[in-house]
Structures are given as C-alpha cells and as structure tokens.
Amino acid sequence: MLQLFTERQRSPRVRRPGLATITAVVLVLALFSAAWSAEPADAAGASPASGSQPAMRTLASGLNTPGSIVQGPRGNRYVAVHGAILMLTPDGNTVEIARGLPSPLVLSHAPDNSLYAASPTTGAVYRFAPNGAWSVVARNLDTPAGIAVDRDGNCTISLAGSGEVVTLMRCEREE
C-alpha cells in the first residue's frame, strides 16, 4: 500500500558553524596537509628532490639468483645465492662461505657471529660457526620462512607450512 505524506515534516534545527569556526577548521586542515605532504629531511636537514631515490651502490653483480641477505660483523654482508652463501666484504670482495646447499635459503646473523640458514625446501636449519665449522641444528620443520637468533642462542623461526612461529631453545647445539 502506497502511503503519501501530506504534511512536510520539520527537521530538527541544525546549528550552522560561524565564519570563525570554518576559518579555524580550514587553517588546521591546511597545516596538517602541509605537514603530511612534506618530504622527509635527511640528517643534514636537506630534503630530497621530488621523485628522487637514495643513492645506490652495487656491492656485487652477476650473482645466481640472490635472495636473503644479512649484515654481519666488520661490515660484511652475507647473501644466499642459488645453493651457496657468499660473504660480501666492505672492500668489494666476494668470498664463498658454503656451497651445495638447498635453495632458497633464509639467513640470520647471530650475536656470537654465527650464521644461520633455514631451508624452506628441506625444513632444515644450518649453523655456520665463525671458525668455518657447520652443523645441522634442526630438521623436518614445516617450511621455515624466517629466522632470528637471540643472544642466548635461541632461534625463533616462522613456519609458513603450519602458520606457526616457534622457538628452538639453544639451537647452536648440533642435532
């Protein structure tokens, strides 16, 4: 059934803002807009030109599928490449640390200067000691996708296969 309204219903009285209120709101919005759109300044206070990128320096080239990279001691960087781990030194040298590993690898640098590598394909975690010795510290993990090692030698690992994050206590010990 169609119902028609013959009387106009009055809406409640709406208080309209005055000129001072509108001016204040516009001023606040303008200040926030300027602050949000300002480009970040560098340490010296200079801001980069619009659309520019930070300076880029090539540390190594011609690598076979580089992946995970971590910062190590003395300015060295460690990068997982197809089946190997390379150390990139600050002076531009590339040193092979290990080869014959599964690929891809996820790397983590530990406070004791060990290097840990987790293999999503095999479920293993490897430890490379500063003296060059290496060991398998865990096996059969469900697709490890990230790893972090704390100062006590505990490994926190994200497991993509099971959707979990687990901690292996004192994982520097060989399994």
At the fold tier of CATH, the topology name of the domain at 69-168 is Neuraminidase
Low-confidence stretches: 1-9
- Count of β-strands: 11
Query: Structural class of the helix and strand makeup?
Result: mainly beta
CATH architecture descriptor name of the domain at 69-168? 6 Propeller
DSSP helical segment count: 1
Strand portion, in percent? 25-35%
Query: CATH homologous superfamily of the domain at 69-168?
Result: TolB, C-terminal domain
The CATH class of the domain at 69-168 is Mainly Beta
H/E series: HEEEEEEEEEEE
Overall geometric form: extended
> Major beta sheet, specifics?
4 strands, antiparallel
Radius of gyration: 29 Å
Helix content bin: 10-25%
Describe the 3D structure.
This protein is mostly beta strands. It has a domain at 69-168: TolB, C-terminal domain (Neuraminidase, 6 Propeller). It is built from one helix and eleven strands. Strand 1 and strand 2 (77-81) form a beta hairpin. The longest helix has 19 residues, at 19-37. It is extended and about 75 Å long. The model is unreliable at 1-9 (pLDDT under 50).
Record keyword descriptors for this entry:
single chain; 175 residues; mainly beta; Neuraminidase; 4-stranded antiparallel sheet; disordered N terminus; 6-blade_b-propeller_TolB-like
